[in-house]
User: What shape does this take?
Amino acid sequence: MRRKVLGMLLGVAIAAILLIGCSSDDGSENTDKLIIGKVGISMPTHSQERWNRDSAYLTEHFEEVGYETILTFSDNDAKKQVKDIQDMIADGVDLLIVNAIDGTALDEAMEEATEAKVPVISYDRLILNDAVSYYVSFDNYMIGKLQGEFIADNLELKNAAGKVYNMEITSGDTADNNAKYFYNGAMDVLKPYIKAGTLKVVSGQTDFLSTATEQWDLGTAYQRAQNILSSYYTDGTQLDAWLCSSDTVALGVEYAITSGYTGSNTILITGQDGDEANLKNIVDGIQTMTVYKNASDEAVVTLSLAQSILEGREIDASLTKDLEIECRYDTKSYKTSDGKRCSSFLLIPKVITKDNLQDLVDSGLYKRDTDGYLYAVE
Ligand code: BGC
Assistant: This one.
């Protein structure tokens, strides 16, 4: 028998106790689950590895403690995402976790959530609407900063002594609020070197808009990289680094480089996420680093926040203190509108290179196969 009990009345701890060792009259184990609430999870697309992994972690963690989950993927179509969220509200969800395709295109759905008194956690990407209760993400500016610092340190730009290094840039989707943070974080580190002439963006495509990749699409990143290589690098000009905001776009750039760059030097290529194909390229020396974001930890913080919201508890920095997850409570960095700052829980990312790939295996979230490559544990 399925019973729905309001999460507000029943703490998860109590639910867990009730679930443990439940047995039927005949003594057999009772597999019925006590449902303590219904949570809607709205993801942007199946087409990127990250969101498949994140949604698996989220559903696993929420279901483990007794929430029923509804999961939707909106095919990178913002209108579909509005409809998917509306359907979940109609379905009676107690809370929404939304990873926005376009942070500015969800007003209609957010209005309905407010009317239905359904709290919204903006997951990973910020929704620019004041209906958002809280934001859970990684420190997005820091991600860009780590990428920029990696390039600056590895090219030893501080001690370049008159040498000029050539670089290109591939940023993310302008509709994704994160993308500008990644770009700014990296460029705040690299701009002084560009100004000083130590670092040169040969294509001249340096600002956010001219380097952006709609929908973070691999094929789009590939095509733009191919154009840049054939227009500026076929005369023997050496390319030293390519700042890529994410693993998906890095993969596109890497396809273009392996098929269209004639130089023999190693090019520093950054990434973000720890996608399997990119980890393989790190092993093979094609990609140099990725900024890894432990999406399982992000799901755990999201669960803890959702429980606190649904149980009416006070929410502050203490939320994550027992979780053993590096996470910063930040009430200043993000705004959902001009006048409204959004309280955020920002996890800390980590640089992964060929030298510390084992850390991913040690986290238990990846395994190394006999081929030497890393695969996410299902
Ligand atoms: C996420 C990244 C991801 C990118 C493309 C961003 O909002 O924070 O982890 O690589 O979207 O999906």
User: Anything to note?
Assistant: The pocket of beta-D-glucopyranose is lined by residues 48, 50, 124-125, 172, 176, 178, 216, 246, 248, 272-273, 293 (CB under 6 Å). The chain is about 40% helix and 20% strand. Confidence is low (pLDDT under 50) at residues 1-24. Residues 2-138+294-349 form a domain with the Rossmann fold fold (CATH 3.40.50.2300).
